[in-house]
Amino acid sequence: xxxxxxxxxxxxxxxxxxxxxAWNTSMEVGVKVCVEDLMTGEVRHTTSAYLTFVAVDGxxxxxxxxxxxxxxxxxxxxxDQAGERRKLRLEMKEKLxxxxxxGQS
Length: 105
Fold this sequence. Notes:
Number of helices: 1
Order of helices and strands: EEEEH
Low-confidence stretches: none
Strand order of the largest sheet: 1-4-3-2
Largest sheet: 4 strands, antiparallel
Distance between the termini: 34 Å
Radius of gyration: 18 Å
Helix content: 25-40%
Strand content: 25-35%
């Protein structure tokens, strides 16, 4: 998460989100938060984040999600970048697992 600007009491907060990419049972959602000073009309970007969600049924079992089909250049860029972020997350997860294994030996 990136925190760029503060949000003060009395300001209007707008949250926008987009599903950037979906895999088998998970999806990445990009979130952008902006704040508007209602007295001046100034709008500032305050926070950004990429969130990963896993779809589950009522019993907590993973379920498949519909694929994301990017159409615009912007959607294709977000789709590709989501794939790169996922690749890095999985690589980091493997490295951490190896470190834990070597620490237990």
